[in-house]
Design brief:
The complex is a heterodimer. Chain A has 5 domains: about 160 residues, no CATH class; about 140 residues, no CATH class; about 150 residues, C8orf32 fold; about 40 residues; about 80 residues, no CATH class. Helices cover about 55% and strands about 10% of the residues of chain A. In chain A, the strands form 5 sheets. Chain A has a 5-stranded antiparallel β-sheet with strand order 10-6-2-15-14, covered by helices on one side. In chain A, helix 7 crosses helix 8, helix 8 packs antiparallel against helix 21 and helix 24 packs antiparallel against helix 25. Chain A is elongated. The relative contact order of chain A is 0.08. The N terminus of chain A is likely disordered. By secondary structure, chain B is of the alpha/beta class. Chain B folds into 2 domains: about 240 residues, P-loop containing nucleotide triphosphate hydrolases (Rossmann fold), CATH 3.40.50.300; about 90 residues, Helicase, Ruva Protein, domain 3, CATH 1.10.8. Chain B contains 15 helices and 9 strands. In chain B, strand 3 and strand 4 form a beta hairpin. In chain B, helix 3 packs antiparallel against helix 5. The radius of gyration of chain B is 20 Å and the shape is globular. The chains are: A alpha+beta, B alpha/beta. Chains A and B meet through helix 23 and helix 24 of A and helix 14 and helix 15 of B.
Amino acid sequence: MKILRKQDTRIPRRPLLWLAAALLFTLPPMFGTLPSWVPLLFLIALAAKFWMEPKGYHLRSLVWKLVLVALILSLLFFSYGSLRGIEPGVSLIVMLTSVKILEAHTAREFHIMIMVAWVLCLCGFFLSQNLAIALCLLIAFTLLLVGLIQFHRGSSSAFWPPVRTAGKLLAQATPLIVLLFLFFPRFSTGFRFQIASQRGSSTGFSDHLSPGSVSSLTNSSAVAFRAEFPDGKIPTLGAMYWRGVVMWHGEGLEWNAPKNPAALPKTSQSPLRSEGVRQWITIEPHDARWMFALDWPANWPSGARLAPGNYLWSDQPIHKPRRYEVTSYPEIPNNQPHLGEREPLLQLPAAISPAARALVQSWTTDKAAPRDIVEKALEFFRTQGFLYSPSPGEYGKNGLDEFLFHRRLGFCEHYAASFATLMRLAGVPARVVTGYLGGEYNEIGHFFLVRQADAHAWCEIWFPDLGWQRIDPTAVVAPDRVNLGFNSFLERRAAAGQLDNTQGVLARKLAHWPIFARARLGWQTLSYAWDTRVLSFDGEEQESFFASVGIAGHGPIFFIVGTLVIAIALLALYAGWTYLRTRPRGNRVKIMYEIFCRKAARLGAPRNPSEGPLDFSRRATRLLANDSERIRSIAEAYIALRYAPASDPMTLEQFAKEVSAFVRTS
Amino acid sequence: MDEKAAQDLLHQRSFIGRPMHSTLLANERDPEIRFDTKKQIAAFTSQICEVIVGKTEAVKLAVACLLARGHLLIEDIPGVGKTTLSQALARSLGLVFQRIQFTSDLLPADILGNSIFDRNEQRFVFHQGPLFSQVVLIDEVNRATAKTQSALLEAMEEHQISADGVTYELPRPFFVIATQNPQYQVGTFPLPESQLDRFLMRIELGVPDRASERAMLLGMDRREMLKELNPVFGAETLLEIQAKVRTIHTSSALLDYLQDLLDASRQRHRSGLSPRAGLALLHASQAWAMMNGRDMVLPEDIQAVGTAVMAHRLGHDIEQSGQSGRTLTAALLNSVPVP
């Protein structure tokens, strides 16, 4: 017993290495979502373990453990303010795992560490569900399996066999995974994790436009949404204005959208003359309710509405990737502002400087038509030395004047906001629209990828004859931005030496290598497929899948039981296959002998597979004294048939008879 | 016939290379001896068992090794009767017997022979060393250096000796019995793998059980008993039996089992059993089957000789402490199913 204890006090190094590798792969989802000290402490604990293990150290003292746990709890409490919720919970598990790593030193605790690491894999999915993270966690899962197998094989066995075994196990599990994925009931309501709303601020798009709010997104390569054109009608890049939110209320350079817009009544739609562009859009979760569509959406998907200003507005905040279909038309169906809309369309900020008023008055002389005013304003932007820059710097309180008359350096939001304000000052109804412009076409997956960096703001002006028309003042200042897309625009600027962001340029140059570019497109396609086919497979999708298979309309119990039955059937098939593969093949003698052995086993004398016929018959005659004579003669006949120089068919017949007699009678 | 007479006999011959059939013992010609092979072998075995008390299994394995034309390695601590067993084997066969005590300063020429200048004939004459014999007992084979050990290789495998550019054939039957001390003892040079592979079997004697030891303590002096041993059969009969061993039937089912064993050993260990080991296993199990009076080999025969044949061939591939060639072999035999 003592020796056993002693053997149990060391974890072999090889399984520990596998475990460590697996734990490293559980880290990526933690970075960026948890406070950075959590994964860092985890890494430090792992490194410390490798320093401690060969020396035989481990965290022994109960006092120290308690102190560490108390420290962790208080740290978490201070950084989150509470221990409730997904992220504090995951952080707590990660930190406790670190302590367990320091403490573990026996075989049993190694098993516990493996189990906890599997829980960490699960927690990773609470934090993020994109394809890269899923692959990371799959690798972690596999490595844990390998570690466990290696652990049970002993310390010094070879490198590949456990990997192969783990791979085989996973391959065998694949049908079950697919089965459960497709058929296990999904509950769309109730069991939903409310992930903290801080993500909205990180993605940046908001219902509030202020100087710098869009330009802060230009460095973000995060995906906003992906769009497919199922009919193959793809508008040009310069016309690809993805409408997000319409802002009615302006304060100089700051504009706001209504917090909870009303729905446009369906009856207000007049029939459309031109052909629409159908789009399938898969939106990334942003925890708010705006949805995107090309200018101008005319119908709306279920669970959403068309808000005044003709933009889509979801009924529920979007917490997970959502795919919807929408059709846009190059004109707005009902192009007259409602009576209630008129007044806010001309609402002005409280403080307008005399300089701005003077500027506008210079355009509105002799009762100029709105079109002329617009032309003059655009002329003003074109000729007065305005420059376009993704980093125009801060604008102070009097931003409008500073922008218009002094610095004249701005990003799209500056131009859109100031232009709309100036138009309202001139008595022309105007509003600001924020959304995205352009996108990156993926020729492998045939879809457009729109990133946060493509965020854009523009204006819409109401003309009495034409109704709402899109006017993009940025296009006047930097026409390339609109026509080439933001990335190409930046590249061209970088080539001209106008950009000092060298790191970004290097990355962009790297991105221009053909292999790299292909790989990137392929990866984007894969992750698009992941988002649209796997992540979005929720209760509704499952229902429609069931409907397409023809088994719709059953309760969850039906599917749970059905899944179990199919799983058991699969396992039985597999077992049958292995049995068929390993069953006694070849000659009749052997089959008869197997039958004899099975019968003997039932009678209480099982044959050891490595036991020869003579040894077995001796043992069996002792165990089954009643049949000793018969067993002996069967064994003799078997030996003669199978091992003797020449056997005659008579003996075979006799052997078969004796075996069947033995099976029947005894 | 004692040792010296046989030695003289050997040296009287004009050349040594041919088997010496007719020159041998009186009782060889006696028709009384030529009874059934199984009985002959049983008599042979029991005679040796009289000297080596309580080690029937080891003795039977040694006899099987002899019948399978293999060489025998006996490994154990000093004083358990290794030398006595080998002497008993040699004397019961009535073959020309030589004993070579290996030491660390022994040189190949000491066992193979020397060319010495003959003044009368004005040329070099080869003087045969003690290896030119029918039964060679090499005592403490791992006390000699690798150089001397490898001098044995050709003799054991090819039954011939090359010296000074001339190849001399060894008498038949040629049977090497080597004893060695366990590796951990001081002053040993472990046999290289190639050398080990040339021994058909390695057996261990172990201390006798209590009753056997009592019988030995009460009984005659072993040296005296050895002197009184009479040859049970001679070279001609032995060669006949050896030839008969190779004709014992091996069915395809049995060869399947044998190959399964070889495959399993190769899959599990970095260096599994060699094809030579496969042949050794086959021949040893044939001999074992014959000793048990069967004209066919059964899986049980392979299992009976398996440890003795395979253990020393797998022993150098020990991956984990606490495992020996014997445990590896036992694991192999226990896990490979009999087809």
